[in-house]
Specification:
With about 300 residues, this protein is α/β, with parallel strands linked by helices. Helix content is about 35%, strand content about 20%. Strands 5-4-1-8-9-10-11-12-13 form a nine-stranded mixed sheet, with helices on both faces. Strands 3-2-6-7 form a four-stranded mixed sheet. Helix 9 crosses helix 10. The longest helix is centred in the C-terminal third of the chain and has 16 residues. It is globular, with a radius of gyration of 19 Å.
Length: about 300
């Protein structure tokens, strides 16, 4: 079974206005809501690829109930913990000439909430997959993902880590199967500026020396770089297409890579499939469908 963990899910409220006037009353011409969060996006992409998963995480209040309803409406199984206080955040994305985001605060997670989640983590078995995706709420220690990996270290669980900074650094000694920082996150991790492919490769290899097995560095419209656990590396240009919305592209990439590995693809083919997933989502109004992904994979 594949498990995805979203510690800080949200209701994504997307609003479109013709022209945003600061300090004035603005009339939206279109709006939508969806269940958001990196792990939830991974579960959605996997569902689009006909692959089942179980979404784990925390919710609270009326917005939390809506997140759970929307997740289940899409046919995704969930085992989400309900927190007593507060409510799941609402992230508002205002799309106009430029995009403006207003993100809500995360939940306050207690020690009891944490132990309840770890009890569910203990149910993960040999051969299962686990995605640790997104930020860790400020009420939790930055080493929480590492704590989960330590707890599972005696089992043969394939773990993907898609987070940044200190939270990522603490997981590397537990040898995650895949990590996927973007170029800016790679620069921030090492506190450097990168101006050429040679340094992308140099610092990606440093990440591998720290423990990561397979590493994808996403570079937006410039494509992506891959360093495999076998030591092979390659740059891949992004497929050509009209970018509509890049939200969820990174989540689509990590979901696509593990889907492909699970289906028996080589590491290099899984990387190509991963890039196709990310680009297909960027070219779509919502997260990419299987048809859109396979079209790019076969024609790029």
């Amino acid at each position: 079974m594949i498990y995805t963990l979203t510690l800080n899910p949200a209701i994504d409220h997307i609003v479109r206005v013709d022209k945003l006037e600061i300090g004035e009353t603005n009339r939206m011409r279109e709006e939508s809501i969806s269940a958001g969060g990196k792990g939830i996006n991974v579960s959605k992409i996997l569902k689009n690829l006909d692959e089942e998963s179980i979404a784990l995480g925390y919710i609270a209040g009326f917005t939390g109930r809506e997140v759970e309803r929307l997740v289940n409406k899409e046919g995704i199984s969930s085992d989400i913990i309900k927190v007593e206080n507060g409510f799941t955040r609402i992230n508002t994305k205002i799309k106009s000439e430029k995009e403006t985001e207003i993100n809500g605060p995360g939940l306050e997670i207690t020690e009891e909430d944490k132990e309840n989640l770890l009890d569910k983590i203990d149910e993960i078995k040999d051969g299962d997959y686990l995605f640790l995706s997104g930020s860790i709420p400020s009420s939790m220690d930055k080493g929480f993902y590492a704590e989960i990996m330590e707890r599972l270290s005696s089992k043969d669980v394939i773990i993907v880590v898609d987070t940044t900074g200190e939270a990522l650094k603490k997981t590397l000694k537990y040898v995650p199967k895949l990590i996927k920082p973007n170029l800016r996150e790679l620069e921030d991790f090492f506190n450097i500026e990168i101006h050429d492919n040679k340094n992308i490769e140099k610092y990606t290899r440093k990440l591998q020396e720290m423990g990561a097995r397979n590493i994808i560095i996403s570079m937006g419209g410039d494509g992506a770089y891959f360093l495999s656990e076998e030591g092979n590396s390659m740059f891949l240009e992004a497929p050509k297409g009209k970018v509509i919305d890049t939200v969820g592209s990174g989540d689509s990439m990590v979901a696509g890579f593990i889907y492909a590995i699970k289906k028996g693809y080589s590491l290099e083919a899984a990387f190509k499939f991963s890039v196709s997933c990310g680009s297909a989502t960027a070219f779509a109004e919502k997260l990419a469908t299987k048809k859109e992904i396979l079209y790019l994979y076969k024609n790029s």
